[in-house]
Amino acid sequence: MKNAFLSLFFFIYTIAFASCSSSENATSADSLQAIADKVWAFSQSHPDGFTLDVRSMTEPTEGIAVSYDLAADHVDREGLEPIVAHALRHDGYVGGWRNPADGKYYFDSTRLVDEDSIDVAIAFGRANKQRAIYVLSTATNIDLGEFTAIERIKERGTMQLGTTGDYRPLTYREPATGAYWGYDIDVAEAIAQRLSVSTTYVPTSWPTLTADVTATPQLFDFAMGGITITDKRLETMLMSDSYLANGKTILCRTEDIARFASLSDIDQPDVRVMVNPGGLNEKFARDSLKHATIIVFGQNEEIPNRIAEGDADVMITEITEAPWYVQNDSRLAAPLLHNPFTHGHIGALMQKGQEDLQHLINRVILKLKSDGTLQQLCEKYGLSY
What we know:
3 domains, disordered N terminus, elongated
C-alpha cells in the first residue's frame, strides 16, 4: 500500500514538473522573442551603431564595448534571438549596426569594460578575434590591428617619450647628468606607472617636432613638454586632453617693467625680441610684431639669460615658463604674466592610429586632476593651476 502511494505521488509530481517546465520554457521563449523584437525596433532608428542593455533597454554612456566571438554572423531580425540569449547569459549587452554595403543589420553579444581598463578591453578583444573595440564616452573606434600602441609599449617594457628638454619648469635635461625633470616629466612618469613600464627619454626639438612625431618608423611613442593643443596639429596628429593651461607672455629686464605694458609697446622699431626657432613662440612673434626686430636664438633655455645680459630686450614665452625664470633670476620680470596675449592648453602629442594610447593618457590625466595631483605639481613648480 505504501509503495503504491509513493508511486502515485512521484507520477503526479513528474506530470506537474513537466507541465511547469514546459510553461517556463514557453514563457522564456516568448520573453526572448519580445526582447529581440525590441532590439530590432531600436536598431532601425540607430543604423550607425549602438550598444544596448537588453535587461533594461537603455543605452550605456560609458565603457569600452567589446564583442564576443560567436560562430556565425547574426544578421537582421532572424539572427537576433541567439544573440539576445547569449547576452542574457553573460553581460547583458547587445551591439548592432547596419552595413551600408549590403543593407543588412549585424548584431553581437557585447561585454562592457571599464574605461580605466583599456588594456583589459584590448586583451578581451584579442581573445575574441575582434578587429576593433569601441569607447562609448568619446565615440572612438580603436583598431586593434597587428599591435596597438599600448601592446607595443608593454612588450618593449619601456615607454619612449619625445621631449625637448629645454623648457623649464616643464621639461629640462640637466647638461651634467642627462637627467630630466619638470612638470611634464612628472605627468609622463605617471603614465608610465599606469603602463607598468619604465621611461626612456628621446630628444626632439621645436623645429623638428612634427616631423619627429610623424616619422616612420616611429622615433618615440608620444611627445610631451609644453606642447600647445592647436587645430593645425590636430589635422595630422592626435593630442591628449589638456593637463595645463598656457598663454603667450614676455620676459624682460626688471628695469624695463614700465616700458612694456602692452603688445604695442613691444612692437616698436627699437625693441629687440628673441625667440626660439620653429615653435609657436616664433610664429606668434612674426604674426604679431611688424616693427620690432625679431632675433631667432637656437637654445631656448639660454634666451632668458640673453635678455638679462642685454643681448635682446624681450623674450616671447609662455605663462608656464616665465614664472620659473623670474623666481630664479632677479634681473628678469614678467610684467604681463596675468594678462597673456593668448589662451591655450598643453597636451601630449602622438601619431594618428594610436587612439588606444590617447585614451589611456586621457584617463591618467583625468585621475591626476580628480585626485589633486596636478594641483600639487603646479604648486611644486610654481605654476598657475
